[in-house]
Give the backbone structure.
Amino acid sequence: MTRKFPTINRKFIQFILVTFSAVIILVFSSCEVEENRNSLTNSETNNSPKEELFSNSIANLKLIEIESKYTNQKYIVGIGLPSSYFLTEDKTYPVIYQMDGEGSLHTSIETSRGLEGEVIIVGVFNYAENSRSLDFTPSKATHPDTKLQMGITESECIPTGGSDEFFQFIVSELMPKINSTYKTDKKTNVLFGHSLGGLFCISALQNEKSPFSHYLISSPSIWWNYPEIFKVPLPKRDFKPVVYLSVGELEQIPTNLPADLMELFPKEVIKSDRTTRMVEGIVETYDYLKKQGNVEVYAHIEEGEVHMSSNVPSFSRGIRTLLPGYNRDVLRRRSSHRPVLPW
């Protein structure tokens, strides 16, 4: 009987690894899929509503369209209002600004209903052509691994390095509109981004003009022109921003796998994984922020999650770690230490 358990476990591990390979291929081919999908969005954006309206898909969700003079793009913005919004006159609400709102804004709104305190969630829909690759990245793609990851070749040029302009859109156009239209707590603003959106959150944190008090950074793409993002120091501020970092446990192939199990992975998956280093990257990001000394940092590795699923539990746990609530102190204690690699 003692010989059967390793055999069963090994087959199970092989099944998991093959499944993981498929997930990795799906995730990191998504950049090319994103570009193909973006070809549909020009007509969608041109036909989008120019005046505020209520969505029929979820209660108290409004949609507006904003054209930015900084990015020369039009953005659909979803605004999720809390249940008590129209029942009170003097109450103000913290605001969460979410990148990639077209993908998970609905989920975030529903998840936020479990908070002790209510919030307004503002989701920016980044589905305009090349919006993610351009708006979320702090520099032109120059590193060969970055170009390979993004599918950039001599014949396939994708615009990158526009996060400064996108940051100006957020803080100079979108936030003033939200603050002047809705009952917002202007001292509590959260920036939430996943993947390239997480990279944008780090670059925003590095901007001395950033008005955000809290940052929820999920699976950031620190591999962008690595190690460029870690060479920029955080500015001195008259307040200490609070940062929550997270990543899925299964976003990286364990580095201690036996050679025969590594052979199960396609070569392109192994190369992509060694370039992105998603789980190790969150530990490196934690170390970078802690060395700055002028930021409060919490981190957590989401058990059993892959890249395309980790943003949901990251938001749920992250927002409860950042904002006041009955279990914030417990979550902060559990996330206050340097994250440990799960292998």
